[in-house]
């Protein structure tokens, strides 16, 4: 039966090519625009660590003085050196990492490459296991390296290709900021989106090229990137003691019970620091998991949301357009439908037949929409925003495109099909 | 034109007429808001910087390792830069408008104030007003003897505590802090350090608009001398016709003077502005695309429905023609019908446009839609409607009267 309806539908669609083309075009444009913006939104609001995000938490403390305190104020988004080191060494979580963004001036041994600055991550060793960073060559540095401020470095695959042509460079010595560093590892391609572990250096930045122990970089006074928030005015420029928050601290907690216990630990820690006189405010802590942290920071640009609403509005216009055209098309065939009804076709079969026709329009519109979405995403990638190059269609969105196209068109077909199957057979036969 | 027959016809095609009205209303509402959004973006991209944009170029450098004699090095750098033909002035500054990297501080109007009044940005560097080409609207520029080394102040804040230092602020900041009063001679504080306003410049935009566009002009300039270890942006005021040559020459010169230096970037101010607003430009472009697509789809929808109606009413038209209606009567009939539907759609569309604007105001911090944008959508849709219906209407007017006499 379905095959017969399909045949009828195709015949009918062929009979009025212009109207059919208009419907397909409207659906394709609406679907194309919607899928382009939905894909961008999907990519940007995705989970950067799908296997682990529920176990990763971002503790926040409030070490500020009472000056300028507002009720219900959020604690700072980063931690100070002293608190970071205290929490790190307390090691109350399953894993923990303390870090900041920075830059390293690289003087390549290969004289044909000019010296350049590379974005760096100054971090404790925990970074690699906690974020499941894949290694191409070598391995992370040792815990002793963290303690000893060892001059060791891990490179990204991209930087390793630039400097060493992609060969295994572990064990080699490179000059960074005028000092010698030993390469201990090269990580494989790794770009979590968003750049969740440090939103201060850009929500969708590429991951860094250089990784070195935090203590090493701080001792060598390498330039840091990101934001530094200071209070209680003092001219202290020693980042280890200054009243400034500038480091990111992440913990891995395997169970919700451990997370609750850790939050209590943060409260206790704040209390203890207050009794020691370091903290002045009442304990004010937060322990958001990864996705809550992204949400709180409103990572997805509001323009992307705006574009999605715009595209959905456009889709609605396209659908209203399609309903109108389909209604015109179906009613025009009133006489034909009248004959079919008079010959014994029930309302239901006529309705089903018309919906098959609508579905066929939706499917063709969906294919057109897919092509337009691919074109749209290509246009998005031409844009200069940091996230633009990430806009690619995945399987999920591909399936979504067809579902949306056929679903929307079937919905659009309901009203015209219902109206058309209401025709009174006798009236149609008489008028002809 | 008689509206009676048109209305009675439309009454018999309620659903189709309703769909057409709905489509026009939605299109009108979206177009009004999209045009408004575009104008917002364009206005934002025009934000004044307060500097002599077409005369400025910037070279950003970085040392591979900190230099020992940074102060002497910087003096030498600036002297060499000033000798480049076409350079009128040069300065090493802590930050540059529209380059995103900035230093900011909360300020208060008295020492015992509990909550800070606002957060403003701090520009530092010697000879900055001259080089930026900022326009003083009150007071004076810093005197040469007012400058202190930034390094020295950082080491010992008492330097600025002992002798009240000077500050130059923007007109917008002055009006915000002391509305209706002259800012000259007034004191402001950050933490426990007080500074006195000696001058007011017309504008000086912040490097980064992280506090929103309303705070864009809250800037202060301090008489602090930077060196290569604590600042890395050289700004040159040059002859506008030689901008690109000077930029190349300056970068080359800076590399020559110190080979342990990396040029991080070199840009004219026009490029800086264009990079800063690239997302707004892209958004405006997207919106233009959406408007064109919307109007096209709506126009095609009107063509489709009008064609259907013309075909459906072929016999009626024939009868009217046979009864003496002229071709232009028929043409005008369809035009009026479309005008009527468009007008209803536009009226609904305006209400909807206002509703969408309310939603956007709530979620995207947009201002209220000025009424002036409503006619834009209306005119666009009337025009589109009339253009779209013209083809089918002409076809209708050419229906020969003889159709009336034929059956089927």
TrEMBL record, chain A:
Topological relation to the membrane, as annotated: Multi-pass membrane protein
A GO cellular-component term linked to this record: plasma membrane
One of the record's GO molecular function terms: ATP binding
Do the record's keywords include Isomerase? no
Q: What residue stretches are annotated with the ABC3 transporter permease C-terminal domain?
A: 310-421
A Pfam family that the UniProt record links to this protein? FtsX
* Protein keywords: ATP-binding, Cell membrane, Membrane, Nucleotide-binding, Transmembrane, Transmembrane helix
Where is this protein primarily located?
Answer: membrane
Extract the InterPro entries matched here: ABC3_permease_C, MacB_PCD, Macrolide_Exporter_MacB
**Where is coiled-coil annotated?**
none
Q: Where in the cell is it found?
A: Cell membrane
Give the transmembrane region(s). Answer: 21-44, 308-328, 349-378, 398-418
Q: Where is the MacB-like periplasmic core domain?
A: 20-266
- PANTHER family given for it? ABC-TYPE MACROLIDE FAMILY EXPORT SYSTEM PERMEASE COMPONENT 2, MEMBRANE COMPONENT OF TRANSPORTER-RELATED
Q: What is this protein called?
A: ABC transporter ATP-binding protein
Q: Give the organism the record lists.
A: Oleiagrimonas soli
The beginning of the lineage is:
Bacteria, Pseudomonadati, Pseudomonadota, Gammaproteobacteria, Lysobacterales
From TrEMBL, chain B:
What sequence ranges are listed for the domain ABC3 transporter permease C-terminal?
290-401
* Highest taxon in the source lineage: Bacteria
State its location(s).
Cell membrane
Example of a GO MF term: transmembrane transporter activity
Q: Which residues form the MacB-like periplasmic core domain?
A: 49-252
Supply one GO CC term from the record. plasma membrane
Q: Which residues form a coiled coil?
A: none
Keyword Phosphoprotein part of the UniProt annotation: no
Q: Where are the transmembrane segments?
A: 15-38, 282-311, 339-360, 372-394
The alphabetical list of record keywords is: Cell membrane, Membrane, Transmembrane, Transmembrane helix
Regarding the membrane, this protein is recorded as: Multi-pass membrane protein
Where does it mainly reside?
A: membrane
- Give the family this protein belongs to, as stated in its UniProt record: Belongs to the ABC-4 integral membrane protein family.
Q: What is this protein called?
A: ABC transporter permease
Q: Which organism is it from?
A: Oleiagrimonas soli
């Amino acid at each position: 039966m379905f095959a017969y309806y399909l045949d009828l539908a195709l015949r009918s669609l062929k009979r009025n090519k212009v109207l059919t083309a208009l419907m397909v075009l409207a659906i394709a444009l609406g679907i194309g625009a919607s899928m382009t913006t939905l894909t961008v939104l999907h990519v940007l609001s995705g989970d950067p660590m799908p296997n682990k995000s529920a176990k990763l938490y971002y503790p926040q403390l409030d070490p500020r003085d009472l000056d300028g305190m507002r009720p219900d104020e959020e604690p700072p988004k980063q931690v100070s050196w002293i608190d970071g080191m205290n929490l790190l060494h307390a090691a109350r979580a399953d894993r923990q990492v303390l870090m900041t963004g920075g830059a390293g001036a690289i003087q390549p041994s290969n004289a044909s490459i000019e010296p350049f600055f590379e974005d760096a991550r100054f971090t404790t060793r925990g970074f690699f296991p906690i974020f499941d960073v894949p290694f191409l060559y070598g391995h992370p540095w040792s815990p002793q390296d963290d303690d000893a401020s060892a001059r060791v470095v891990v490179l990204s695959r991209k930087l390793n290709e630039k400097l060493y042509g992609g060969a295994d460079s572990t064990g080699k010595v490179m000059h960074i900021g005028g000092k010698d560093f030993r390469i201990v590892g090269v990580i494989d391609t790794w770009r979590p989106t968003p750049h969740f572990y440090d939103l201060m250096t850009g929500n969708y930045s590429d991951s860094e090229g250089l990784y070195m122990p935090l203590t090493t970089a701080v001792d060598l006074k390498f330039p840091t990137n990101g934001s530094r928030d200071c209070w209680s005015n003092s001219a202290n420029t020693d980042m280890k003691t200054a009243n400034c928050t500038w480091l990111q601290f992440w913990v891995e907690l395997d169970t919700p019970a451990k997370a609750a216990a850790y939050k209590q630990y943060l409260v206790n820690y704040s209390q203890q620091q207050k009794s020691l006189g370091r903290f002045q405010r009442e304990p004010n802590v937060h322990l958001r998991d990864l996705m809550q942290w992204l949400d709180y920071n409103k990572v997805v640009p509001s323009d992307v949301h705006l574009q999605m609403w715009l595209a959905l509005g456009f889709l609605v216009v396209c659908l209203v357009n399609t309903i109108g055209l389909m209604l015109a098309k179906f009613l025009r065939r009133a006489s034909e439908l009248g004959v079919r009804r008079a010959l014994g076709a029930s309302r239901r079969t006529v309705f089903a037949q018309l919906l098959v026709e609508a579905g066929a329009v939706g499917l063709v519109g969906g294919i057109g929409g897919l092509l337009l979405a691919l074109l749209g995403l290509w246009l998005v990638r031409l844009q200069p925003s940091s996230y633009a190059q990430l806009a690619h269609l995945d399987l999920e969105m591909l399936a979504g495109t067809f579902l949306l196209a056929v679903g929307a068109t079937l919905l659009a077909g309901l009203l015209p099909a219902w109206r058309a199957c209401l025709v009174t057979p006798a009236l149609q036969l008489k008028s002809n | 034109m008689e509206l009676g027959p048109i209305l009675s016809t439309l009454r018999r095609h309620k659903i189709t007429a309703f769909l057409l009205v709905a489509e026009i209303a939605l299109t009108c509402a979206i177009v009004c808001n999209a045009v408004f959004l575009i104008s917002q973006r364009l206005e934002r991209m025009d934000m004044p910087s307060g500097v002599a944009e077409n005369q400025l170029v910037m070279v950003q450098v970085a040392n591979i390792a900190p230099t020992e004699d940074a102060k002497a090095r910087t003096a030498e750098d600036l002297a060499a830069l000033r000798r480049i033909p076409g350079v009128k002035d040069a300065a090493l500054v802590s930050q540059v408008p529209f380059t995103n990297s900035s230093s900011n501080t909360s300020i208060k109007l008295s020492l015992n104030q509990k909550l800070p009044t606002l957060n403003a940005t701090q520009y530092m560097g010697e000879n900055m007003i001259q080089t930026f080409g900022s326009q003083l609207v009150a007071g004076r520029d810093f005197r040469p003897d007012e400058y202190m080394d930034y390094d020295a102040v950082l080491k010992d804040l008492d330097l600025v505590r002992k002798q009240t230092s000077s500050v130059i602020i923007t007109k917008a900041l002055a009006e915000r802090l002391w509305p209706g009063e002259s800012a000259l001679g007034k004191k402001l504080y950050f933490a426990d350090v007080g500074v006195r306003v000696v001058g007011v410049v017309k504008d000086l935009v912040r490097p980064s608009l992280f506090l929103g566009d309303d705070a864009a002009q809250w800037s202060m300039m301090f008489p602090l001398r930077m060196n290569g270890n604590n600042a890395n942006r050289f700004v040159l005021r040059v002859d506008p016709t030689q901008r690109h040559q000077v930029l190349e020459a300056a970068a080359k010169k800076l590399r020559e003077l110190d080979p342990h230096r990396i040029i991080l970037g070199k840009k004219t101010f026009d490029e800086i502005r264009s990079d800063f607003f690239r997302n707004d430009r892209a958004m405006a472009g997207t919106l233009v695309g959406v408007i064109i697509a919307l109007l096209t789809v709506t126009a095609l929808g009107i063509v489709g429905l009008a064609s259907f109606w013309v075909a459906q009413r072929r016999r009626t038209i024939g009868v009217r023609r046979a009864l003496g209606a002229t071709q232009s009567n028929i043409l005008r009939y369809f035009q009026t019908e479309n005008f009527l539907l468009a007008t209803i759609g536009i009226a609904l569309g305006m209400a909807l446009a206002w509703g969408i604007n309310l939603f956007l105001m709530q979620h995207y911090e947009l201002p209220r839609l000025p009424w002036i944008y409503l006619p834009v959508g209306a005119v666009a849709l009337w025009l589109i409607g009339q253009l779209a219906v013209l083809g089918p209407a002409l076809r209708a007017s050419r229906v020969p009267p003889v159709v009336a006499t034929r059956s089927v």
